[in-house]
TrEMBL record:
SMART domains found in the cross-reference section: HTH_LUXR, REC
Highest taxon listed in the record's lineage: Bacteria
HTH luxR-type domain ranges (all copies): 151-216
Presence of keyword DNA-binding: yes
Modification 4-aspartylphosphate, positions: 55
Cross-referenced PROSITE patterns: HTH_LUXR_1, HTH_LUXR_2, RESPONSE_REGULATORY
Species: Streptomyces cellulosae
Lineage: Bacteria, Bacillati, Actinomycetota, Actinomycetes, Kitasatosporales
Name this polypeptide is given: Response regulator
Keywords for the protein's UniProt record, in alphabetical order: DNA-binding, Phosphoprotein, Transcription, Transcription regulation
Length: 221
């Protein structure tokens, strides 16, 4: 089955460019478009896309609020890939904190766009880990972490192995790379990752990594 994508951007040329790049791939299908975040929820419910590629800045409802709305109101929500002009934008970090799974630069090359959609759909790696780390360092709550994130981590009571897996996730390692590092099977790593997400109440590894940074469990610098 192809990865299905909904494009949300107030610039028609951006949507057209993304559509052209993605539809050139045999395993990706663009199922719809919207010009503002306000139209996302009904389209997501109607089209059930695997991934929403969503502009972070839009006139009526921006990508941050649209992300929150989708995750709050849609059962089995899609993966959300924020599309932005600047990777060091505070809006991008707020979108990730709100639940977005990754971000994509508008100036990205076609191969990078395709890779981002596939990687976010698979959910087994962190998209652009170095950039996420820089964003956490710049817009997070300092080296000591914020209290809410610290409380989440304390309540999680991760085992020693789960804590090790979370540190490796924060470094951007995929499940296969973590398995090689720990000399265990990939299925074992998947079980550990699932346990980490469940204990942290994170919907995916991006949210778990942000909690790790903001709690001070992992230094973002």
């Amino acid at each position: 089955m192809p990865v299905t994508v909904l494009l949300v951007d107030d610039e028609p040329l951006v949507r057209a460019g993304l559509r052209a790049v993605l539809e050139a791939q045999p395993d990706i299908e663009v199922v719809g478009e919207a010009a503002d975040g306000a139209a996302v929820i009904p389209l997501v419910r109607q089209l059930r896309p695997d991934v929403v590629a969503m502009d972070v800045r839009m006139p009526l409802l921006d990508g941050i609020e649209a992300t929150r709305a989708v995750l709050r109101t849609v059962d089995q929500p899609p993966k959300i890939l924020v599309v932005t002009t600047f990777e060091n934008d505070e809006y991008v970090y707020e979108a990730l904190r709100a639940g977005a799974d990754g971000f994509l630069l508008k100036r990205a090359r076609p191969a990078e766009i395709v890779h981002a959609v596939r990687l976010v759909a698979e959910g087994e790696s962190l998209l652009f880990p170095a950039s996420v780390r820089r964003l956490a360092a710049e817009y997070g709550d300092g080296d000591g972490g914020n209290r809410a994130a610290r409380d989440v981590l304390a309540r999680a009571r991760l085992t020693e192995r789960e804590a090790e897996v979370l540190r490796l996730m924060a470094r951007g390692l995929s499940n296969a790379e973590i398995a090689a590092r720990l000399v265990v099977g990939t299925e074992t790593v998947k079980s550990h990752v699932s346990a980490v997400l469940a204990k942290l109440g994170a919907r995916d590894r991006t949210q778990a990594v942000i909690t790790a940074y903001e709690s001070g469990f992992v230094a973002p610098g």
